[in-house]
Predict the structure.
Amino acid sequence: MYNHNKTRGFTLVELVVTLSLVALLAGLAQTSWTQLLVSNRHKDLTQDIQRMFATARSHAIHSKTLTTICPLSPERRCTDDWTLPVAVFPDRNNDKRPDNDHIHRIFKLNNGHSTIHSRTAGRGYFQLAADAMSHGTMGSLIACSRRADGRTQMSYLALNIGGRIRVLHDGDGDGKIRLPWGASVACPSP
């Protein structure tokens, strides 16, 4: 008797359909993964900003001195360029320069994927008094991160009179936040 053992395998159509489905799922996973990375980086950025202000409050209270938070130029002067590292330093004479060139801590907020814009009327700095209350006028920061789908993840971080940061997040990804008093803030155009 003749015994035919037929080799089993995939037909060309089955193979093409399978590979097409795998490619489609890989594309969807890539987009989701990229959006997850952007979301996590943005969350890390807002937490770093909150940590920076908490550090400044702690130093203001413990050293009982005016404490300034700002990006420093190479000449060690406050600037409004938030792509630079941000310093927290004692500023007893209120000249917006570190006293005796002493800096409590430097924060590198520029992660290459997000932008930070200050709303400080051009000053570019924040100050906390010895009691950790906001010194002078208050201000805010806007953190913007572009997602792979073209939408913007945005957070508004405002310093209140008590020296604490209040955070509002853009829930719908349109790059705009309506503030409780009716004003709107948006990420500046790139």
